[in-house]
Structures are given as C-alpha cells and as structure tokens.
Amino acid sequence: MIGYLNGKVVEAKTEELIVSVNGVGYQVNLPSAFSYYQSGDDCELYIYTYVREDALELFGFKERESKELFIKLLSVSGIGPKVALSIISTLSPEKFAQAVVNENINVLKQVNGIGPKSGQRLILELKDKLDDILLVAGSQSGSKTLAHDDELYSALNNLGYQDNEINNAVNELSNELAGDLEDRIMQVLNYLGKE
Fold first, then answer.
1. Digit-coded pLDDT (tens) for 107-144
2. Helix, coil or strand: residue 21
3. CATH 1.10.150.20: which residues of the chain?
4. Strand 42-52 to strand 4-13: parallel, antiparallel, or no bridges (unpaired)?
C-alpha cells in the first residue's frame, strides 16, 4: 500500500496529478482544492490506495485529517470515492464534522451527490466517529475562533468562494489573519487575488 508521496508534478489536471517519485510516475486523484498545482511543482501528498477487483487508484490529500476523513467516508454504505472526494472538495474536515455532529443536513446537501437520504446516512453512521477531527479543530482554534471562522466562511461563501478555496487561504494566512471580520475578509480576498 502506498501511504505517502513526495515528488515533482509531471502533469496537472483539475482533479488529477501525475507525480514523479524517483523516476516512477504515480497518477493521483485529488480533491478540487489541489487545482493550483502546476507541472514542475514539488508536492507532498498523503495517499490512500483504493483497491477493487477491477481498479487500483491513488487518492492524494495535503493534510492527514483529509485522508482520515476520506477513509471514514468510504466506510459509509453507498459512499464511494467520487462522492467522498466531492465532500472533501466542498467542506473542510472541521465543517463536515460539525455538520454531522449537529445533524445539519442543509450543510451536507451543499455537496454534489449528497441528498437528504445520503445526508441522513452520513449522520447515522459517522456521528460517533468524528471526535478526532473535532478535537484537532478545537486544539487548532478555540471555540470563539471557530464561531468567527463560521462568519468568515459564510461571508466568503456569499461572495461565491467554495470552502476549499477559503481553507487554502486561511491555512496560508493562519498566523497573519487578524482584526475584525471585515479585515479578515479583505485579507483572504487579497490572498485569493480579488478585492
């Protein structure tokens, strides 16, 4: 099983990379959050090897938490790798975990391929299995900061940005992101190249 790759991007598509590691090219499926990689970039990915009778596929993630969430999603009946990838592309692990724990189907239905029935199934099967994601979220930012993040995400969602784009910006700016809500919105917008 391949669990990690560190190499150079040979070819980059929206949701797929070919990564060269010591002369071997690995084709890796990615959440759409990775669409910023270009040929020649160095990349480091946590890998999940998906094995079926008729397929052997690699799925890559920037954070270990996203990979862990992907594995948990695959354990839910009716959720395959494409829907699991769509969930991770649309919602951060923390936001997904909060939606499941709070039984917020409306947040889950934002994901392409998730309807009321599959949303209910996700809640039923994962509600007690996401404590580690919530603990990581809580340790990285206090509950007060999480509430502010919800406001920030909501405001940027209203401007047309997806959670994965916001996550990338917030992660890159984490130490510098400060001020009131309006200041933080402007900082993220500047990072995303739009004002």
1. 888 888 898 999 999 999 998 888 766 655 544 444 43
2. strand
3. 64-137
4. antiparallel
Q: Check whether 41 has a pLDDT greater than 80.
A: yes
d(CA 47, CA 175): 27
Distances (CA, A) of 47 to 60, 96, 159, 162: 5, 20, 32, 23
Superfamily of domain 64-137: 5' to 3' exonuclease, C-terminal subdomain (1.10.150.20)
- CA distance to 9, 53, 79, 192, per residue, from 129 (Å): 34, 28, 16, 33
* d(C-alpha 27, C-alpha 29), whole Å: 7
The strand pair at 24-29 and 4-13 is best described as unpaired
Across the range 144-150, mean pLDDT stands at 49
Q: Where do the CATH 2.40.50.140 domains begin and end in the chain?
A: 4-61
The DSSP annotation for 68-131 comes to HHHHHHHTSTT--HHHHHHHHHHS-HHHHHHHHHTT-HHHHTTSTT--HHHHHHHHHHHTTS-H
**CA 93 to chain CA mean position, Å:** 6
d(CA 81, CA 74): 7
